Amino acid sequence: MKKYVNGKLVDMSSDEIKARQEEEKKEQALEPEKKLSALRLERDFLLGQSDWVVIKEREEGGSVSNFADWKEYRQKLRDITKTYKSLQDVKWPTAPSE
Questions:
Q1: How many CB atoms lie within 10 A of CB 35?
Q2: pTM of this prediction?
Q3: CB atoms within 10 A of CB 87
Q4: What is the DSSP string of 33-83?
Q5: Which residues fall within 8 angstroms of residue 66, CB to CB, at 6 or more apart?
Q6: How far from the centroid of its chain's Cα atoms is residue 98's Cα?
Q7: Which strand (E) or helix (H) includes residue 31?
Q8: Other Cβ atoms closer than 10 A to 12
Q9: Residues 6 or more apart from 20 whose CB is under 8 A from it?
Q10: Which of 23, 50, 55, 94 is packed most tightly, with the most Cβ within 10 A?
Q11: Quick one: how far is CA 66 from the chain centroid?
């Protein structure tokens, strides 16, 4: 392995190579958590977009005719991380019609 020192490409020492390899291992170990975090962010965004249904239902006491569908949709969003671990493979539930 090589590195730049003062603009020149030089060989890394064996200790530097080991340190770099350890850093790479740590980064790879964090990758699943990063993917799950991105999934949670998108899920939270979608939940936020449907908050109006819950607010309307509570404020107007049963005025949302398909509230059960919305409730089911929101639960599926909350449970999404039990099934999927990244945005690449997730299959999002479909929001009910308004």
A1: 16
A2: 0.70
A3: 14
A4: HHHHHHHHHHHHHHHHHTHHHHHHHHHHTS--TTHHHHHHHHHHHHHHHHH
A5: 96, 97
A6: 26
A7: helix 14-49
A8: 14
A9: 1, 12
A10: 50
A11: 28
Q: For residue 58, give both structure tokens.
A: 């509570």
Token representation of residue 10: 């030089």
Contact predicate 43/92, CB 8 Å: no
> 36-95, pLDDT tens digit by residue?
999 999 999 999 999 999 999 999 988 889 999 999 999 999 999 999 999 998 999 999
The string of pLDDT tens digits covering residues 4-44 is 999 999 999 999 999 998 988 888 887 889 999 999 999 99
What separation in angstroms does the CA of 68 have from each of 31, 71, 85? Answer: 36, 5, 27
